[in-house]
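Batch 3, record 17
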Amino acid sequence: MNIQAQLDKLGIELPPAPPLGGVYKPVVIIDRMLYVSGQGPLRNDGTLITGKLGVDLTTPEGYQAARQVGLTMLATIRSQIGDLGKVKRLIKTLGMVNSAPDFYEHPKVINGYSDLFSELLGEENGIGARSAVGMILPGNIAVEIEAIFELH
Amino acid sequence: MNIQAQLDKLGIELPPAPPLGGVYKPVVIIDRMLYVSGQGPLRNDGTLITGKLGVDLTTPEGYQAARQVGLTMLATIRSQIGDLGKVKRLIKTLGMVNSAPDFYEHPKVINGYSDLFSELLGEENGIGARSAVGMILPGNIAVEIEAIFELH
Amino acid sequence: MNIQAQLDKLGIELPPAPPLGGVYKPVVIIDRMLYVSGQGPLRNDGTLITGKLGVDLTTPEGYQAARQVGLTMLATIRSQIGDLGKVKRLIKTLGMVNSAPDFYEHPKVINGYSDLFSELLGEENGIGARSAVGMILPGNIAVEIEAIFELH
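Prediction for the assembled complex:
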């Protein structure tokens, strides 16, 4: 499966590639490994989804935010490597949820990201190793995700 | 040293391999690198060790929980790759401790995991690079650990 | 650019390599990848910079702490591989900030580390992929950073 072809087929539009939020590269490639910097949930209008899970946002809202992080990540990758067809497989995801101290449904939130990549790359290549945990996130964004992909 | 042989020699029984807790693969292999998803502390009876360090659990209890995460991880790896003898070396561990805001002994907790792998693979191959830090963990589990191993 | 030559040119002195704080190796090498364990901000007198951002420390103080983590990491690497000239490129950084629940400027803090490596290795090789997020850190240290480098 080819991510760009799937996006076209499903009529999914990507948000803009986010501006740099500090001193880092959006992606780094070594051999055929693509390391992607932590991405936030950018809406298509360029604003970020903010708030803490368990206080400001429900788990279903967090799921949607995590899906939006996936779309933002794709916009970042496309802006950096040009063609999303080069992405072969999701290796590993660190899913970071902006959590109240008593919020415990991080996996259900990060599933929003994981389901997206399963739809776009298939179960074999689109589902990778993962941790889904709670932190305090920059700019009070709802979800931040970093990942490693294998390129063709 | 061979992990399975060491487990047999020391009479250590593994817990059951944990059920999937979301949309991820328990492990992903690329070349000879084994990426393991975040694992929790599953007891041999299939229940999870829960609670926050510094509130519900003491540091020695956290140490035991981290050791149990190591055993759970081995159960996961064995269920996925079949033979623990294929595991050559621990490369890197991210040790995540469910922490009260004023709990600061994360390394002493994660040592429970690290000591286990040192016993099973020896100091040269069983001790890897590591971070041990505090977060908010899914299901209020005491410890979650993700790791990268080298395979033979 | 060569890190050791740049350190000499800029007159930057490294702190001592930190003592082990648990059961881990300071660095692990596989192929030409160097995995560095989480490092804290060791001052040149051997004491650690402690405190939570948003409560005990300001963002500029956090920036300086993150820069000091970078120097500590270089001391660690030099003590383990001998020659900093072997370090070719920064691949990936996980920047962990000891945060109050309402502190949101993690990227500005971790920039202290990232600016240092940009100065020492240049923008092309010294700036990598990155996440900058908030956690609860061991010993109440202000910042902890783990990283992956490519070696020559």
